[in-house]
Amino acid sequence: MATQRPNKQADKDTKSGNEDAACLYTSSKAQSQPFERKIITINAIKTVIGLGAAAAVVYLYVPIPIPSLPTAGHRLVYTLRLQTPAFLILMAAILNVGMVRLHTPAINPIYGNAEHLVEFERRFLANHVEQMLLNVPGQLVLVSFLGEGHMKVIPILSLIFVFGRVSFYIGYRMSYLRRTVGFMSSFLPSCLIWLVNAYFVGRALVHNETIKL
């Protein structure tokens, strides 16, 4: 019996070591790979440079017809109307989920055990809702600070957002590594919008500016 104790202890140590190794392996596999980070980073940098250059060229040199918008109310209504494409994409994303469910076992989301069949569609829908919650309210807040002479920026922002959403869908459908362009084209402008909004809000608070309608 005394000779069995070391063997049992050795078996216990071996089992513990295997569990630690398995945990370490699982942990390493859970991390992204260097080539993945490299591809996404390069695509993100290219998107930032290309998107910034394109937006600047369009703003400075491309004539965009803007109606007369003398008051903040007119500018707000104009901005709301330009959000129509974003909501059309939202409707299409919802219909896409519904159509996939209709023609697959995922029609039963509780007991169908087929949610993987709509995983991509659900992920795109969730991402689009998240991006809209950032972009659309951001534009509405931004337009409350813009004068009539700077309203050209709103159709440009709306166009970039639609481009980003379409690019995200196509790229994500092809490969998870190709969704960066679409994501950055949607998320980056929203971040810039809210940073500008924060600046205007801070300036208004410091100088006690009144709201002009």
From TrEMBL:
Gene Ontology cellular-component annotations: lysosomal membrane; trans-Golgi network membrane
Pfam families according to UniProt: MAPEG
Keywords, in A-Z order: Membrane, Transmembrane, Transmembrane helix
InterPro entries (alphabetical): MAPEG-like_dom_sf, Membr-assoc_MAPEG
Listed transmembrane segments: 39-62, 82-100, 153-172, 184-206
Principal localisation: membrane
Keyword Transmembrane: yes
Locations listed in the record: Membrane
Residue ranges the record marks as coiled coil: none
A biological process term (GO) from this entry: regulated exocytosis
PANTHER family, per the entry: TRANSMEMBRANE PROTEIN 79 (PTHR31004:SF1)
Protein name: Transmembrane protein 79
Taxonomic source organism: Elysia marginata
